[in-house]
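Example 3.2
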Amino acid sequence: NEHCLKNFDLAEYRQVLSDLSIQIYQQLIKIAEGVLQPMIVTAVLENESIQGLSGVKPMGYRKRSSSRGDSENAYSLEAIIRQLNTFLSIMYDQGLDPEIIQQAIKQLFYMINAVALNNLLLRKDVCS
C-alpha cells in the first residue's frame, strides 16, 4: 500500500489542491474579519484606556457612547488582542505554515487599521 502512495502522481491534482487551499485561506480571513469587525470601533476608537484621553473626548464621541447604553457592544483593546491570540493558536494547532500565519495576521491588522481609519474619516466631529 505504501508503494502505491509513493508512486502516485499528484501533478493532475496540483491545480485543484492549489485552488482549494486559496479558498480555505479566503474563508479563514472572511470569518476572522467577521468576528473582529464589530469590535474595532469601540475597542480602537472609543477606548478610554489611553492615559490622558478619557476626559478629552470630542462631543460626537460622547453622544455615540452614551446613546449605546448597554455595555454588551463595548469592546476593549484586550478583547481584540484575545481574539487575535485565539486565531493565532488555532492556526498553529492546525499546523499552518508560519508564513501563511504571518500573512493572515498581517492581513487582519490591515483590516483593523482600514476600518478604524474609515470610521474616523466619516466622523464630522473629527475631520474638519
